[in-house]
Specification:
The complex is a heterodimer of chains A (395) and B (101). Chain A is α/β, with parallel strands linked by helices and 395 residues long. Chain A contains twelve helices and 15 strands. Chain B has a two-stranded antiparallel ribbon. In chain B, a hairpin with a 2-residue loop joins strand 2 and strand 3 (63-67). The chains are: A alpha/beta (395), B alpha+beta (101). Chain A binds chain B through residues 97-100, 160, 198-199, 206-212, 214, 218-219, 221-222, 224-226, 228, and chain B through 5-8, 10, 12-17, 19.
Chain lengths: 395, 101
């Protein structure tokens, strides 16, 4: 039976994990992810899942245990945040290059230092080239839905890559909302029984070696192969979303466009801030301003052509970045740089400006977003981007 | 899998699907020092065989009979553990010079 619960994002993901009932979860607690693995550990203790729950001494070990279990043929999940993801770094690459379909929640939190436990996207943006699929969620419902879809995406034989699902630290992780929880069996039917599509470590009839030395004679070929897996993911994400919509009724794509089709100016922003921006769009639309919103859902693989197509008619674009790519062009944010590159290749010649916001959990409120739209109208009038990067609400 | 196979046809993720194929991977070329045994002093205690990390000590009829130089990397563990010090590590260049003569 489907039911609606008043729960936060972390509890929603714990429910998804309970219903997915993975063979192995290896995790280490870190704020603000803790309540996910804590709640899930309770499900294990209460016998609601058959999962082997491995408590480890660090995130490096957590991801290592996930790699081992996945190579052994287990369906594997974990969760982390911020410095925990940073400590997994080495093994993130191992998981992706070994083509192991691990599914992980990352609760977006600033990286140290100075130490900060609140939301920004520095953690997963730093891991954007690690070879994982990255899916951003706006709210607890999306996080729940994305975790369920992530299992299918990761395990698809054309993909076989780990998937990271993100939601915003505290804002989504601890913000209580109305969340639709599906029937356990419906979720089980959707994800299906896990049958690894590759030789596994525990198959004694067909022994294999995982993670061997791979020098100049084959390493390059394996990287080329990995590119192919990532390239296939885009279509698989769309196919899984279509099947999800047929079964559960909610529509997902590579991105979400809100009142964008006739917009003169538009904001591109990820995650929970898209929700805030939507209300600003409605307010400005009521005043007769043609403003729109584009919320990328999938950041890796980056849907460059699709986003460029969606923005083509817009006359000025503001990208809002909740992280900084230090040392990149103008120290802009990664989302901005990707959108610029997409425009360069797939067309459109409108001015695009970057607005860095919300680092370390600095609140982003509707008047500031209105300010971005006002700035975009100024750019529209002058045809010039005065500042490539603007820092919102920094003293 | 034939040598030089392209990315479309090699096992995914660097998986080695054939058990025991490390024997095909010749590592002898890494060696800077070659072990040389003096069989006059060797007691065939087989400490070298036990400790060799590359299974490169050749044994026949429970006797140490030499080294698998296609795989021996010249680490010198055998020389170190030999209780009668009958294994010397000799610079590979010495053999190269000899071959030139």
């Amino acid at each position: 039976m489907r039911e609606f619960l008043a729960i936060d994002g972390n509890a929603a993901v714990a429910h998804a994990m309970r219903q997915i009932n993975p063979d192995v979860v290896a995790a280490y607690p870190i704020t603000p992810q803790t309540s996910t693995v804590q709640t899930f550990a309770q499900y294990v203790a209460d016998g609601l899942v058959k999962t082997e729950y491995v408590t480890v001494e660090s995130e490096h070990s957590a991801m290592s245990a996930c790699v081992g279990a996945a190579a052994a043929g287990a369906r594997v999940m974990t969760a982390t945040s911020s410095c925990g993801l940073a400590l997994m770094w080495e093994i993130l690459y191992v998981a992706a290059s070994m083509r192991l379909p691990i599914v992980m929640l990352d609760v977006n939190r600033a990286l140290s230092g100075p130490i900060n436990i609140h939301c920004d996207h520095s953690d997963t943006m730093g891991a954007r080239d690690a070879g994982w699929i990255q899916i951003f969620s706006e709210n607890p419902q999306e996080s729940y839905d994305n975790m369920i879809q992530a299992v299918r995406i990761a395990e698809h034989p054309d993909v076989l890559l780990p998937v990271m699902v993100m939601h915003d630290g505290f804002i989504t992780s601890h913000g209580m909302e109305r969340v639709e929880i599906f029937d356990d069996k419906e979720v089980q039917d959707f994800i299906g029984e896990y049958k690894p599509q590759f030789p596994t470590l525990l198959d004694v009839r067909k022994p294999v070696t995982y993670g061997p030395l791979d020098f100049y004679d084959y390493y390059f070929e394996h990287k080329r192969q990995q590119v192919e897996g990532v390239a296939h993911a885009t279509q698989v994400i769309l196919d899984v979303a279509a099947e999800f919509e047929r079964k559960f009724g909610r529509k997902y794509g590579l991105f979400e466009a809100y009142r964008l089709e006739d917009a003169d100016v538009a904001i591109v922003v990820l995650s929970s801030t898209a929700g805030t921006t939507r209300t600003v769009v409605d307010k400005l639309r009521a005043q007769g301003k043609k403003v729109g919103l584009l919320k990328p859902r999938v950041f890796r693989p980056f849907p460059a052509k699709e986003l460029a197509d969606a923005l083509r008619h817009v006359k000025a674009v503001g990208v809002m970045d909740r992280s900084i790519a230090f040392g990149a062009m103008s120290c802009a944010g990664p989302l901005y740089l990707e959108i610029l590159a997409a425009q360069r290749i797939y067309g459109g010649n409108m001015p695009i400006a970057d607005y860095v916001f919300g680092l370390g959990g600095r609140d982003i409120v509707p008047p500031e977003i209105e300010g971005v739209y006002a700035d975009l109208y100024k750019i529209l009038e002058t045809g010039k981007v005065a500042n490539l990067v603007t820092y919102l609400n920094v003293r | 899998m034939p040598k030089g196979t392209g990315w479309r046809d090699i096992p995914r993720g660097g998986l080695i699907e054939e058990a025991g194929n490390s024997v095909e991977y010749k590592t002898g070329g890494w060696r800077a020092f070659r072990p040389v045994v003096d069989k006059q002093r060797c007691t065939n205690c087989l400490f070298c065989w036990v400790f060799c990390p590359d299974s490169s000590i050749l044994v026949s009829d429970e006797k140490m009979v030499g080294f698998d130089l296609e795989h021996c990397k010249g680490c010198g563990v055998c020389a170190k553990v030999c209780p009668v010090h009958c294994i010397d590590m000799v610079e590979e260049t010495a053999f190269a010079k000899e071959a030139e003569k």
